[in-house]
Amino acid sequence: MPTVPGASYGLPKAEGLYSPEYESDACGVGFVVNIEGKRSHKHRGACGCDNDSGDGAGVMTGIPHKLYRKIMSGQGVTLPDEGRYATGLMFIEKDERKDIEEEFTKMATQFELKVLGWRVVDVDETFCGEVARTLEPLILQVFVTGTEDKAEFLRQVYLLRKYSTHKIPEKGLRYYICGLSTETVVYKGQLNTSQLWGYFRDLSDPDFETHISLIHSRFSTNTFPSWERAHPQRYLAHNGEINTLRGNVNLMAAREGVMHSPAYGDRLKNLYPVVESGMSDSGCVDNVLEFLCMAGGRELPEAIMTMVPEAWQNDRTMTAEKKAYYRWSAFAMEPWDGPALLTFTDGRYIGAILDRNGLRPSRFYVTKDNHMYMSSEVGVTDCKSPDVIQKGRLAPGRMLLVDTQEKVFMKDELIKSHLANLRPVSQWLQETLSMSELRQHYSLGRNKRHSIDRMHMAHGSCLEEDRRLPMFGWTTEALNMLVLPMIRDKKEALGSMGNDAPLACLSLYNPLVFDYFKQLFAQVTNPPIDPFREKIVMSLACPVGPEANILEPSAEQCRRLWLEQPILSLSDCDMLKYTSYKGWKTKILDSVFLVSSGAVGMLKALNKLCEESEKAAEAGYQLLVLSDRTAGKQYAPISPLLAVGAVHHDLIKKKLRLKVGLIVESDAICPYLVFETIARLRQQHLLDPPLPDEEIFMNFRAACARGISKGAQIFEAVGLNRDVMDLCFTGSASRIGGVGFTHLAEETLRRHWLAYAEIECDSRVVMNPGNLHWRDGGEKHINDPMSVANLQDAGRTGNKDSYAKFTETALDAARHCTLRGQMDFRFSEKPLDLSEVEEAASIAHSTLAIAMNRIGAKSNTGEGGENADRYLNEDPINNKRSKIKQMAQGAKPGEGGELPGHKGKAEHIVISGHDGGTGASSWTGIKGAGLPWELGRDVVIAAMLGADEFGFSTAPLIVMGCTMMRKCHLNTCPARELMSRMGIRRFQDLVGRTDKLKFSPNPHNPKAKLLDFSAILKNALDGRPDTNIVGGSMSQDFQMENRLDYKVIEQARSVIEGKQKQVVINMTITNEDRTFAATLSNLISMKTVETGLPDKSILINLKGSGGQSFCAFLARGVHVTLEGDANDYVGKGLSGGEVVIFPPKDMPPAFRSEDNIIVGNVVLYGATSGKAFFRGQTAERWGNFADKCNPESVALESLELSEDVTFVRSFLQEFVDKTGSTIAQHILDNWATERACFVKVFPHEFRRALDEQTKEGAGSLAEAPVPTPLGDKPSPFGENHDPKKEEKDIETPENEYIEELINPIDDNDPNRKEAAIEEEEEGASSSDEERKVKADVNKETEKEAEPKVEPTIIDIEETIRDATMEQKKLDKLRGFVKYKRATNQYRDPAVRQKDWKEIYNHRAVMEGLRTQAARCMDCGVPFCQSDHGCPLGNIIPKWNDLVFRGNWQEALAQLLQTNNFPEFTGRVCPAPCEGACVLGINSPAVTIKNIENTIIDYAFEQGWIKPEVPKTRTGKKIAVVGSGPSGLAAAAQLNKAGHLVTVYERNDRVGGLLRYGIPTMKLSKQVVDRRVRLMEAEGIRFMTGVEVGKDKLGSNLIQDYDATCLAMGSTWPRDLPIPGRDLEGIHFAMSFLETWQKKQQGNNLEYLTLNAKDKDVIGAKSITSFEILPPPPPTRAASNPWPTFPRVFKMDYGHEEVELKYGRDPRIFNIGSKEFLDDGKGHVCGIKTHLVEWTKDATGRWEMQEVPGSEKVYKADMVLLAMGFLGPEKSILQEMSVKTDPRGNVNTDKNKYATSIPSVYAAGDCRRGQSLVVWAINEGRQAARQIDLDLMGKTSLAGPGGIVFQPE
Ligand code: SF4
Prior knowledge:
Blueprint: E1 26-34, E2 57-62, H1 65-74, E3 85-92, H2 97-110, E4 114-120, H3 130-134, E5 138-145, H4 150-167, E6 175-177, E7 184-189, H5 193-199, H6 201-204, E8 212-219, E9 236-240, H7 245-255, H8 281-295, H9 300-307, H10 320-332, E10 340-345, E11 349-354, E12 363-367, E13 371-375, E14 388-393, E15 399-403, E16 408-410, H11 412-420, H12 425-428, E17 433-434, H13 435-441, H14 446-449, H15 468-471, H16 476-489, E18 494-495, E19 517-519, E20 542-544, E21 561-563, H17 570-577, E22 586-590, E23 592-594, H18 600-618, E24 623-627, E25 635-637, H19 640-653, E26 661-665, H20 672-683, H21 693-707, E27 715-717, H22 722-728, H23 741-756, H24 785-797, H25 800-817, E28 823-825, H26 849-854, H27 868-871, E29 921-922, H28 923-928, H29 939-944, H30 954-960, H31 974-982, E30 997-999, H32 1020-1023, H33 1044-1056, E31 1063-1069, H34 1078-1087, E32 1098-1106, E33 1118-1126, E34 1135-1142, E35 1169-1174, H35 1185-1188, E36 1194-1198, H36 1202-1219, H37 1222-1229, H38 1231-1234, E37 1239-1243, H39 1244-1263, H40 1283-1291, H41 1295-1302, H42 1326-1336, H43 1339-1345, ...
Parallel strand pairs: 17-21, 22-24, 24-26, 31-32, 32-33, 33-34, 34-35, 38-39, 38-41, 39-40, 41-52, 43-50, 44-45
Antiparallel strand pairs: 1-8, 1-13, 2-7, 2-8, 3-5, 3-6, 4-5, 9-10, 10-11, 11-15, 12-13, 12-14, 15-16, 18-29, 19-27, 20-21, 23-25, 28-30, 36-37, 42-51, 46-47, 47-48, 47-49
Helix pairs in contact: 2-4, 7-19, 8-9, 10-11, 16-21, 18-19, 24-25, 24-30, 33-34, 36-37, 50-51, 51-54, 52-54, 55-63
């Protein structure tokens, strides 16, 4: 893990993304000790890149006095007695020896030491690898002596060691001293272990005698090896990493401000900094350990116990003394957490300790000759079995210690109980201040302690009024998807599919400072730590307040406040703020800045905060509370992260940090707004269940506890600049620069403006910019609906156009969201011809497993492994088998399946992403963990950045569309084209070519421009000039042929091939034989199609120590017996085989298998079947289960069921037979009593799954369809289905093209979400869709979903009131599977055709509403809102969910965010949202518009819709011309913004199309009147009967009003100019409709000319409707894929009624009109028609031809022309000189509404052409927003998707 900044010789300087600070170690460690301290002359490693240099190896031994005395006497130096001199090896440059000796000697004198002599250590360079040799130092050894006072002498030696390390490198000299000690010496270097012994000749000298030998071998998994970084350090060597390092190091620096030492006095400062610069993690631990031993008054075992405590807080089995010790020790120092195995020695003691996570292996043997052999694996020594008396392992947090002075080997209990009783710590702990003591003092009872005060009421009476929510960046998403689940379930909700939203550094939606951070992972941990299941080791308890001097153990250390966890309740926080108990005092510091001070004000306020903190710390305050409580209208909050970071680091720098405790009263630590908001939700009856205060607090606290990474500073910033990092996050990385304080302040101020806008319009609601789930108008997402739909189509149909569109949208999304989107290629001036670039098949690019295998690439199964049907697929064309079988994450050398341990190197570099992934994780995990992989717009960029292997997951899943992957091979290779343009022939030549990339930030994103990509684009060759970076150019020899598996396979081949029944193999095994039997098992699985071999086919008898992953994936039929022991991961992925391990039969008789370890950690990980018998103790996670298991995951049950009892007993017998276990025999002998000791471990999740399965099995039994043999299956399309016919149907021309002919569509208009859907309000309705669906659904289910009986409910409320009851019964999670779409939503046609009332069966709709809402999946990418879906971006999934929950008011609030008139759209819209619904891919879409309509109708009925008169008027006057949907929407929005709005309508009533263009059956005019009255009450003036351009000139409007909005619709009807058009009785349908509507509404009109009673009309005696186009297909045509609007044959309500009355559908398709026929009196009497045929021409365009001989005359007494509209009335436009486009519509810029005339705007059909009501509303809203913005400079009216803030 990262280290502390500073130079470290041998490591490259920080360059590009590399920094020595990120160096990690993963290692092998071990020691040998003679427990009696007797000396004698009595090894392993990985290689560096040159195949011969080691990554580092070393040994620490006792001082070989005999040898040194001999050598130094040869130089004329007589060494004093042992212990009277100190010695150490140092690495220096050959030509700097003189300078070093001088400097060192000078310093020695300074500390009253005398240099006795120097020697150049004798080395054999031939043992040094090529790379290591380039940096090989001169190794000098020094001997010093000093005062007789041993303790003072040791201090002098330590001072010299430390001081010289600080000071000599400052002079520019290479100087690294491996140690300076009277007891130990370290030999190490950039070597491997075998080189070590040859390189240092001293080590092979027979006079080199030592009682201890601590050995280390380093694997630098992702780091540079160096001489200096080799282990051991001065006191220790380790395996693993220290994940808490940065936090530990910072606190250690802070501690320097409170430490003092009587023994060192002023000299103490010479030791500072305790943690030296440039240290690796182990170096840092070593520095502190050394310091605690040398200056802290602690012996080595105690010092190590202080730094590496057990998980003591939650351990129910720990003694009180030990707990007390650990608590005291926790006051002195925070834990240094691994995962790590630390081995340590000071010459007297030698031991090992495993950190509390315990994820590193550590095993030991004790032999008869009193030696202990400890190592990270068994089998590394050649101890003979008869000599071994004990085999053990270290448990987490446990210590192993040998005291060579006392000649004893001590186990953990003994050591620690000794240390725990050294001091009266229990008594000292009495001094601790606890929260309960404080509460008692302030008489805070339990209820009061968690009470949520009423302070929030000052911020409004309901949630919307609390403006603090938007000010702090709260969103409804955060509230609903993060906070509420935490309160309800005590844990975070899960999300999936990765994070595809823009990184905070690219987001223009004002992200929080938290969002700029990404969590880092432990690099060498396998398996990963699981904080949920391993809760026992996680504790959040911490001491707060001033820390005492650590160097003098005393009660002083306990005088701090002990917090069991960091989340404070409101009352606890208040108590701490105002306490004076026991002299404690608290300073409250406001972390806010004045809004009026602007963006610069924030940094000033931060600096002031730091100053005030310093003063308070100096003034003796024990607690500082940083509070943003005062934030509001005047003050904006400083991000708590910035505030606490700045203060924390400032206090560290000033060495004041440990004088005070820091408490944050903000969104963190005391998250007051969370508690207050939840309380408010409860008060508004929106919290279900309505938990009491205490539970709210406790649940939230519990949820937080799962996600807190305490004090570790294991985060990296992505996109913050140096200033921010230096001030607030010192020591944390931010490698690509980015925004600074000004930007962060501006983002804060924008949030503040949204919260406190002077005129609140749409900003009143808590916004949701769509950070987690995609939302129209919100944050871009890589997987946005357009990309997904295009990829889906490309994947399903192989449509190249779709793929091209996908590429385009994906690139655009990457530009908005990712770092790779900010890169571009540097193309060559001399591009290559494409033919010169290697073939696509050679290029490692592809999509899925099939495609990848075709071209030889590899795909990855993911962690769950692979399904058998895929695994076994041998189909050479459609082979879906993934070449990589992934088992677990984490990088660990030698652990990767087939890689032998001694050759653990990266063969491939894989650049991993954060924006994909399919797995489920907590939302904050998805959002906050892992760095983006930017470091392939694609594969090409990734390769250029260094990747040579590629894995895909999310994109393929999208292609599969959750159904079946059919075709994914796309015959395009953009990589080749790019390569040719860059002048690169071979793909492997791309690898690492960062010089061919350039930083090219999105020009529309000001934040992107602030990034600095120089680090990313730094060429690896700059750091290591001569390194070969050509991908795949260096082959690595894994010596696979030497694997033991191949020898087994040779002997077993005839059995595997079925030629022989059985084979018995006998062999020996060592720990180097890793993953034994995996290759064998793979071969068996391939040969036997995964069934394995018959039992006992291959019997393998082994002796020795099994290497890691022994018997991994062992196949059925293979029985392995190992006489010996084994390491970690035994039986990983066990797949039917049998493993038996027992101790060697020749162990000494005293050896008891039950007390000794037989196998390592993580046994049987991922095992699926088979048997395993281990005689001996197994790894940690198996021992003493009852006390240690996590009851949250599993239940412990007694063994009662007779089948369980029989199973266990027979298994025990088998165990005895196979291992000879005496314990098992004893149990069997005493079975009657012993059986009671067995517990059955049952995972809760497994139980739940079983219960569900049982329930479902019972439920589905009755319905379960009888499976039909495949050949007998009926066609899903019915008996007479003819697939050819279907094809023909699909081939028929579609309306779309022809419609374009008639009514051209402007494809360039970005607002056109759906090419004008022909049916408009009179056309498509859900009833048609439903009719189709109805035929499909099971009748039984229909009964359930739709009432056949007449509705019995009285009103809407009746349905809604039993929300809770219904909700409880409904299953939202699987609603879309369980419930059918309701279909019976219209009144009976026989009834409805007799009246003029609305056609809807409102009551039936209401009754099944929640069932319908439960079908909505709340999609992460909700297509219902996409470009093909709702033009308004209605937040459909959210209000569906709210309706499901019965939260109607909130559903209304969500609905009104995007739609002013849901009562109109809910009735008349053809619902493109339903056409685009994700469910529509393979089942009926979710019911949307009925729900929308019910929400608003219910709201009116409840009286929730009231006139809202603007509080403030701007004084601006605005005229709106036209009162149709767009005019009304514009007027409503502009009025809301405080403008005075006058609407001009030429007709006699308000409403335009809504009034006279839509029949009352579809939209009751009372509904229109209701809205108009409301708008009038809100202050809008309606001027009816005034035709602008005629009654009032447009130019007058321009003069009289500040702005004019033209919204007069598209009213110019298309005519049919054929002979006879002038005859009487031929009318435009719209005129007919208008007059009838007028008549119905009471106008006194004579319509004799239109009266067609008893005549043949195209409405009375007979009705016929002509359609020139062919009928649409019954299902979607190939060219009409989901999610486009479905152009399928529908039966609308009108057709239905005609059919009912006249017995036939009135429509005739494929018919053209030639002539109107005259009755001789100038009146129409019929139409001459002909049939038409549609064919495609050579270019693929549709052509219409008359069918010869098809002429026919239809009688008609009246003809209505309904052929659409051509555009707006021209007169007003001409009068106002407004520019029009070629189609005659008002011309505006793209996405703008301003016309060519200043202050004149246009909206709706007059601008975009004939369209839908929903589009018109959207236009009106957006035009209003632009008008407001232009007039006022700012607007709080909502933009697209209802989102107020819209980045420009
Ligand atoms: S309505 Fe359909 S697309 Fe929209 S969220 Fe629900 S299921 Fe998804």
